[in-house]
Specification:
heterodimer; A: 6 helices; B: mainly alpha
Chain lengths: 121, 148
Amino acid sequence: MLLTYLKVFLTGGIICLIGQILINKTKMTSARILVTFMVAGVLLEGIGVYQYIVDFGKAGATIPIVGFGRTLARGVIKEVSTKGVLGILTGGLTATTAGIAASVIFSFFVALIFRSKTKHS
Amino acid sequence: MDREERNKKYNLYVSSKSPKSREWPNLLYAFLIGGLICCFGQAITDTLQIWFPAMSETELGAWTLTVIIFITCILTGIGVFDDIAKFAGAGTIVPITGFANSICSSAMEFRREGIIFGMCVKMFVVAGPVIVCGIVSSILVGVIYLIL
């Protein structure tokens, strides 16, 4: 139990550490970091490596945006093997729609209820 | 004054004025906060598994993400998230919290330009490229997988 959480902590921490190193060294904006990590997740799952990281780190590997990319690629691969060509188009979003739709709907209501505190000078 | 010399001086000036991010504390905070967020996610997964033993692993994953996204949006709404993000850097950007926060904060920021043409249009100003690049690369993976 404790060991699992230690692994989760290490995996998640190291992935975020890589992100912070990228920010410090290359002055990447957060949008670029998100895009890079998303694509990295898709590619890592594509070549079949990411499953090992997930087996080791569990939520530590699925909570970072890399895991989101992984879900996308996994959806595509799964639907390609069951549905064929159409799976290339339908698989990815089907697998990730929970995350995207949840972000949209919660953001929608939050933005309706709360006011932005951004200072506009 | 020579143009090159002027550029050099200007660059020096910019780098002396731009906020210095001290490396080591930054890295440490990113590591700690990122790890903690992931542990929190694991705790949600484990709790859900106890409550709903019939759930598959994919469903558990989706629920965990949904809960974290919900909490992130609320924290962004009340303005707490920015304080954490300032301090944690990549620790909050890299986990799914960064994705949810990018959508939520853009939605809130452009709310004053109207609901349809402000909020709904600009919501994906940061997250749009993430989704587009993700889909394009995943289709690439799918095509390669289909051929092989």
